[in-house]
Amino acid sequence: MTPASTAPTTGAPTRARDTDTHCPYCSLQCGMRLRPTAAGTGGAPVDGPPVEVLERPDFPVNRGALCGKGQSAPALLARGVRLTGPLLRDRPGGPLRSAGWDEALDRVAAGLAAVRERHGADAVGVFGGGGLTNEKAYQLGKFARVVLGTANIDYNGRFCMSSAAAAHRRAFGLDRGLPFPLADLPHTGCLILVGGNPAETMPPALRYFRELRENGGTLIVVDPRRTRTAEQADLHLQPRPGTDLALALGLLHLVIADGLVDEEFVAARTIGFDRARAAAMAHWPDRVERITGVPVAELQRAASLFGCAATGMVLTARGPEQHSKGTDTVGAWIDLCLATGNAGRRYAGYGCLTGQGNGQGGREHGQKADQLPGYRSIEDPAARAHVAGVWGVDPDSLPRSGRSAYELLDGLGQPGGARALLLMGSNPVVSAPNAAHVTARLRGLDLLVVADLVLSETARLADVVLPVTQWAEEDGTTTNLEGRVILRRRALDPPAGVRGELWLLGELARRLGVPDGFPDDAERVFDELRRASAGGDADYAGISYRRIAAEDGVFWPCPDARHPGTPRLFLDRFATPDGRARFAGVTHRPAGEEPDREYPLHLTTGRVLAQYQSGAQTRRVAELNAAAPGPFVELHPRLAARLGIADGEPVAVVSRRGRAVAPARVSAGIRPDTVFMPFHWPGAGRANSLTNPALDPVSRMPEFKTCAVRVERLPGTAEKVSGGEDRGGRTVA
Ligand code: SF4
């Protein structure tokens, strides 16, 4: 292990030539080429980005196209934007000050050990992120179970993909976001996109939808807003937030009534259609129109387009998933696919558009509360024995399932909850639901340790901040939304004072009495991950760095070195014990919180083109900030007129949990009973001050996508309306 004092950090390009790698942001993981700039090779300007981004047209997923986030990603590699050394707080409420790595790591190790000694192993919590590489996610899970011995590890992916994952596993026995490559999309006959806006979240993917229509296919978009993606659809269905489940059942009802069920497929490859049929028949068109607000004629057109197409796909994103009934909602859309024979064959099926950069891999290798590497259950004795064998520990020493992400955060500092938290790659002060409450919980901890590349809003609360490397400064794998494992390559050394997460986990493990088993070489960690995943659902055993580089990525499962990988799942059988898919057979139920007299409107939240997730990174990029400088409240002209609100006027949105203030953006593209806020900003305009933490009973996903609010005018207000006060710089005493 490299001692802290001699870790190789020169801040110079590792190579003088170009490096092929991938974007650090969303789950498309676009291929890009990095070329050293004058700043990177020691020339002026010294503070500019050390590399520039070039197209990489040979990578098949994005074929050279990049959005502005990817193009501008090197801006965060420049000095002055990022953290370049550890920070410590000497007393609660005191300022952060600069520290050396040894002092910082000694403080963390001593603090974690003291909490464990005083309150037990589960009093130490670990919170990971869907942006961490597979190697980091794997090592973080191992660190929690082997070094800390805590059950309480979860990650922010619980907030993103967990409902789709749970529904996928329930129906098909396996969860991979897309069971087919993106390249299959243009060849389907009809595609229903539910609650996703790739035109803003992953623009290069839009070409697949365009090509679908050029090939004569039909695109149906389901969204309460007329988004840039919805504008390109043949049919846009605009339901009330929280009613996607009823909408799916209504379409299934019409498919059944119109005789469009694929009886042969249902008989041969599924189980449970009778229950699904009964649920659907209780959702007749008039009833579904009343629940969803979608006119019967549009329901009929959508059912006919999908049911009559030779092949069909349904893709969901966060819109239908981030609900207290997200698992059942996705299940209902899968039922529509199964009833029409649109699963387990070419150019057909259900898929989820994953959000975060490693949203797929991040949920496969052990940073979830209930999971061991390879997508194994931590409660399964055989899985425990296998992974314990790879880790060289007694299976009985491994903790059981811990608390899910929101439950973990909600319990911080409370009786029975964690009193110390190690947090990597996440910014819950902005991204968690009921964020003011979560922030208060974080403030109540005995010890908060944050590893991040910038001083995020959560890092500002920490007792110890550990500055970590970025995508261009490290090797590692991620798994994109297709289940394609890809390789990020180190193009330059990090600045002196910055370390990788693998290295700091090894250093902490050593200080906590586990000297071996935590190397800081990513390929070594990946080779161990391969062994730990062997035989599991997400089997990476046959994938190597060499193969990934040679083959433009390898699709899991890939159980041995001669296996070609699996771009298309379920063609012969589903991954259930008997090979048949399961209908969910679920019925509609209201959201955790519906509008009432006091809070008469739906709030729904989402993303904008120029910002990414909590904005910790993109808010620090000047050109992205110029394009999207702050939050806003989108509302319909009729609602605006009724409330007397003008475009651009600051308004307050109020829910039972809090209040957010931002300028009104009047748009005819949104339902009159709904307001929309993007969630990228902290401060007064923080959308997650409002959101409801009601949890899905299966996935434990919070209900980000709908809650009850009212909108208030602020005539003559002096309130600050921008939430973008944290756009860079750091505060160090
Ligand atoms: S679409 Fe996603 S992966 Fe591609 S450049 Fe944009 S943010 Fe990066």
The number of strands is: 30
Whole-number mean pLDDT: 93
Helix count equals 22
Low-pLDDT parts are 1-10, 718-733
What is the share of helical residues? 25-40%
Structural classification: alpha/beta
Estimate the global geometry from the Cα principal axes. Answer: globular
Rg estimate, integer Å? 25 Å
Enumerate the strands of the largest sheet in spatial order, edge to edge or round the barrel: 5-4-18-17-16-6-7
Query: What is the terminal separation in angstroms?
Result: 32 Å
Taken as a percent bin, the fraction of beta residues is: 15-25%
Major sheet size, sense and barrel closure: 7 strands, mixed
Bound molecules: iron/sulfur cluster
Notes on the protein architecture:
- This protein has 733 residues and is of the alpha/beta class.
- A hairpin with a 3-residue loop joins strand 14 and strand 15 (376-377).
- Helix 3 packs parallel to helix 18 (501-511).
- It is globular.
- It binds iron/sulfur cluster.
- Residues 23, 25-26, 28-30, 62, 66-67, 69-70, 202-204 line the site of iron/sulfur cluster (SF4).
In short:
The chain has 733 residues and is α/β, with parallel strands linked by helices.
How is the topology of this model organized?
Blueprint: E1 19-22, E2 31-36, E3 51-54, H1 68-71, E4 87-89, E5 96-98, H2 101-119, E6 124-128, H3 134-148, E7 153-155, H4 162-172, E8 190-194, H5 198-201, H6 206-214, E9 218-222, E10 235-237, H7 244-257, H8 263-269, E11 270-271, H9 273-281, H10 285-292, H11 296-308, E12 312-316, H12 318-321, H13 326-339, E13 349-352, E14 371-372, E15 376-377, H14 381-391, H15 405-410, E16 420-424, H16 428-431, H17 435-443, E17 447-452, E18 464-467, E19 476-479, E20 484-488, H18 501-511, H19 522-533, H20 545-551, E21 554-555, E22 581-582, E23 601-606, H21 622-627, E24 633-635, H22 637-643, E25 650-654, E26 659-666, E27 674-678, E28 692-695, E29 702-703, E30 707-713
Parallel strand pairs: 6-7, 6-16, 8-9, 8-12, 9-10, 11-22, 12-13, 16-17, 17-18, 23-27, 24-26
Antiparallel strand pairs: 1-2, 2-3, 4-5, 4-18, 14-15, 19-20, 20-21, 23-30, 25-26, 25-30, 28-29
Helix pairs in contact: 2-18, 3-18, 3-19, 4-13, 7-9, 7-10, 7-11, 7-13, 14-19
The structure holds iron/sulfur cluster.
